[in-house]
Amino acid sequence: MAEGDVTLDTSDVDKWVGKPVIFAEFWDPCNATDIRRWVQAMDYANPLHWDEQFARSSKFGGIVAPQSFTVAMDYGHGCHPSCVGKIPGSHLIFAGEEWWFYGNPVRPGDKLTQERSFAGYKVTDTAFAGPTMFADGDTVHRNQHGALVAKERATSIRYLVDEAAKRKVYDKGNVPPKLWTQSELEEVAKLRLQWIKSNREGISPRFGDVQVGDKLPRRVIGPHSRVTFALECRAHRQNIWGTWRWNVPEGTYDPATEDAGFGEDMTYDFEARKIDPRHGDGLFHGPSSGHINAEKGEKVGMGGVYGYGSSMNAWHVDTIAYWAGHDGYIWHSKTQFRSPAFEGDVTYIDCEVIDKQETSPFGMPVVTVQSKMTTQEGATILKGTATVSLPV
């Protein structure tokens, strides 16, 4: 695919459309500490997911994972089945996620298995990088009992590094990260605490009492930093040394370990990983290393260090789930990412009820909640919706 003399070579991608890919799984079931690590990194202070005493007194009888944790039970931050085939000189960022949930929460002791496939792609001209691939990958999550936990469609953006670096759409090189004054930080902390207190007991609003136009309590996350980005990375179980293995069925070829066309300093070295596990953990090496390494972030057109799409989706899901309470449940969620969260920024999350249905495809009354994430400057970085059941 070309725009003028700029060419995005997708020829190696076409052969994988509709095929199963990415055969990897974790060795071990998750535990309560995995769940606690996740909510700590996502700054999701819901005691149901970290406070054992509180959780035991709830209807769940103990620590239970938030719905957003499902992605941390998977290899590849959810987007791996959308990144197959070699595109020379390319890189990848997240574009959005769509989830369907099936009422089976993840608890300590659960082990999920995944079926992944490459759904297809389209190429669109973008101001960011010219010809740009929007690729979809599907993942089906089941627990150790075979019960369906969730389905995900992840959309990734694959683009030419040199073209993105030239266009500098996300160039932060001449704009250092914002330094927050003490009074500004106090305002952020005040808003954060107000949100935590807004539904700490997990009380669910009644379907009949919720009206279209109702606004959820505003949430703030940040300021983002290399420390918070590193914590988010480590909260994904795959990024803890030795947690996963390839499990390619005999006679099946999996392109997951093949060269995707990333720059030499943005790839994994699976042989070196056998001796030095840093080479496979995604923080020091590999395509995710630009999240904490400013020089690498600049090379791939991001202008510096930047946050994770999977975290933004989790903030969306968690914010709405917190409002929905212990008797609420998110059945469907969809997000579109407009920009990453950058170092020094804060993210404000504002949500509003935009629809109510007495009857729905989910067999129960549901409301639709719309979310919008903005920076301190008012720039939109995410828009999303979630379909939520509430007690009647």
Automatic annotation (TrEMBL):
- Write one Pfam family the protein is assigned to: FAS1_DH_region
The superkingdom of the source organism is Bacteria
Q: Which InterPro entries match?
A: FAS1-like_DH_region (IPR039569), HotDog_dom_sf (IPR029069)
As recorded in UniProt, coiled-coil segments are none
Q: Tell me where the signal peptide lies.
A: none
**Domain spans labelled FAS1-like dehydratase:** 24-151
Name listed for the protein in its UniProt record: MaoC family dehydratase N-terminal domain-containing protein
**What is the organism field in this record?**
Novosphingobium mangrovi (ex Huang et al. 2023)
What taxonomic classification does the UniProt entry list for its organism? Bacteria, Pseudomonadati, Pseudomonadota, Alphaproteobacteria, Sphingomonadales
